[in-house]
Design a protein that fits this description.
576 residues; Rossmann fold; GMP Synthetase, Chain A, domain 3; 3 domains; five-stranded parallel sheet; five-stranded antiparallel sheet; 27 strands; 26% strand; globular
């Protein structure tokens, strides 16, 4: 009989095993932990030296080994110290996915400072908000971000002793920085000798990062990630990889690739580094594991396919829409994607149809869909391989150190297969939000994070994310989860992307509305959409309104649909 996920988990987490689970008090709350987790990120950085001359980063024609990276980190760390950066100071980073992003992040961490990655898509005013809210002492910005924030710099400098380090920036853009602000070029700072060692006095529960959440209402909140949080996420990632490898070997269900030669593990980083998936779930694990990362200047499915072929990429993913775009690309049949071994994504609901398409086009690929938030330091659950194919609407069982509750609107825990709000507790859950006691009190209680996601747990312990609480529609008293309707519409081969929102209705409260981007060269009618959904779901879930648009649906930097924007666009167009 085939080994189950729970059996594999029990074997790997038992006493004396590498993934042994213990219980420890964190901030006064008894919490499950990995007994053998690293204590701080600095330990991980030091350990990365052992990978030596192996390639770590590839950006266009630039290549950096692990040794190169470590030397850049230590040199830049020394430069930050010389600029007066000390333990607990905040260092803001805002740029594209350049190699400088990664070694700037680690340089700040390595001296006990707090890395503050800002959303590179933000406007100048938003960037200024992040700098001011975090109280950052040093800004490490590229040319585009300098141009955006330049009009705000005088005001920022008047309230703090601000210093700017420019990355890949022209002299013309540098001249826009007020003379009252100290500025230096990163290449000049790297001209000095590297310090002999990295040895900050940091503890597991010291803050390491502040990541601003991508909230669609109000000001973004700065999620404080500790060294323990991020080290736990690393162990979560390694546990999932180890367990899935064990299950594949035990079951023998993934066909062996034609070329049996060992392949270098190569990850195509297609999401921004300022997002938890890019930094916590991709960059950090690959640094520790000694894998190669291919950086993209910006996401483009055709460019992604070209890089997969050129660099023999073994892992790619990001958010579900990126995988859809690769599969739907006209270049897909013309590119060699046989090197792919894993297609992993999360950050948004994934329709079951996507799993079928992955299995069809990547027969040796291992599909996986995960769930996590910035507040859980990325990974909280993951569904991989055969189990994902068997349960494509689930994000899998929570990782062993994550406890979950499904809480009803009355505050009572729900039973099996009954939706409620998902609460999560574990050593990967952040302690709260930077300088925001009200938001922290509203989202956390006794170590439990109130996720804001509607979910249920099935009889096998698998977690199902039904919808964001705010994305749930209520039509005539009936709850409708937009992801369920989107999943049905995605089954139509003519659909490239879809968003389902609720449109106000005087009688029923809300009506179902679907906004669809057809695949290039394909056509589809409103009635086809309605008939298909009606054949899959209850009648009250069938969209009353169906709109088509040729351009891409709006998404934020994390790949999440901007449903509020779409909803407002539809309401505005209907009122004219």
């Amino acid at each position: 009989m085939a080994m189950t996920v729970s059996q594999a988990t029990e074997l790997l987490t038992s006493k004396g095993q590498p993934f042994e689970v213990a219980r420890e008090e964190i901030r006064g709350v008894p919490t499950l932990v990995w007994a053998n987790a690293p204590k701080t990120l600095v330990e991980l950085l030091r350990d990365s030296k052992r990978h030596g001359n192996k390639t770590f980063l590839v950006y266009e024609d630039e290549r950096y080994s692990f040794e190169d990276h470590y030397e850049l980190v230590t040199k830049f760390a020394g430069a930050l110290r010389d600029l007066g950066v000390a333990k607990g100071d905040r260092v803001a980073i805002a740029m594209r996915n350049y190699p400088e992003w990664i070694y700037s992040f680690w340089a700040a961490i390595s001296i006990g400072a707090i890395s503050v990655p800002l959303n590179a898509w933000w406007s100048g005013d938003e960037l200024a908000y992040g700098v001011k809210d975090s109280g950052s002492k040093v800004l490490i910005f590229d040319e585009e971000r300098i141009q955006r924030i330049a009009p705000c710099l005088e005001e920022l400098a008047s309230s703090s002793n601000l210093q700017i380090i420019t990355v890949r920036c022209t002299e013309d853009t540098r001249s826009k920085i007020p003379r009252s602000i100290s500025q230096k070029r990163i290449q000049d700072l790297l001209a000095q000798e590297a310090p002999s060692q990295i040895d900050p006095a940091v503890l597991p529960d010291d803050p390491a990062v502040i990541f601003y959440t991508s909230g669609t209402t109000g000001k973004p909140k700065g999620a404080i990630g500790t060294h323990r949080n991020l080290a736990t996420n690393l162990m979560n990632a390694f546990f999932i990889t180890t367990r899935s490898t064990m299950l594949v070997k035990e079951r023998g269900t993934i066909p062996a690739p034609e070329n049996e030669d060992p392949v270098e593990s190569t990850y195509l980083l297609s999401v921004p580094l300022f997002h938890a998936t890019g930094c916590f779930a991709t960059m950090i694990p690959n640094l520790v594991a000694g894998n190669k990362i291919i950086l993209m200047r910006r996401w483009n499915p055709e460019d992604a396919l070209a890089l997969i072929e050129k660099e023999s990429v073994t892992f790619f993913g990001g958010v579900p829409t990126m995988v859809w775009q690769v599969l739907n690309s006209p270049d897909f049949p013309r590119r060699d994607t046989s090197s792919i071994r894993n297609i992993s994504y999360g950050g948004a609901p994934a329709p079951p149809e996507l799993v079928r398409r992955i299995k069809e086009h990547f027969p040796t690929g291992l599909p996986s869909n995960g769930y996590g938030l910035t507040e859980t330091s990325a990974i909280a659950a993951m569904n991989v391989g055969d189990d994902y194919v068997r349960k494509p609407d689930s994000v899998g069982p929570p990782v062993p150190v994550c406890e979950v509750r499904i809480v009803g609107s009355d505050g009572v825990d729900q039973g099996i297969n009954t939706p409620g709000e998902l609460w999560i507790k574990g050593p990967n859950v952040i302690p709260g939000y930077w300088n925001n006691e009200a938001a922290t009190a509203a989202s956390f209680s006794d170590g439990w994070l109130h996720s804001g996601d509607m979910a249920f747990v099935d009889e096998e312990g698998y977690l199902h994310i039904v919808d964001r609480t705010k994305d749930m529609l209520i039509r005539g008293g009936e709850n409708i989860y937009s992801s369920e309707v989107e999943g049905a519409i995605y089954e139509l081969p003519s659909v490239a992307d879809v968003a389902v929102v609720g449109i106000p209705d005087l009688v029923l409260g809300e009506e179902v509305c679907a906004i669809i981007q057809p695949r290039p060269g394909h056509s589809i009618s409103e009635q086809e959409v309605r008939d298909h959904v009606a054949s899959r779901l209850a009648h009250f879930k069938v969209p009353k309104y169906v709109y088509f648009r040729e351009d891409s649906l709006p998404r934020n930097a994390a790949g999440k649909l901007l449903k509020r924007q779409l909803k407002n666009e539809i309401i505005d167009s209907e009122s004219k």
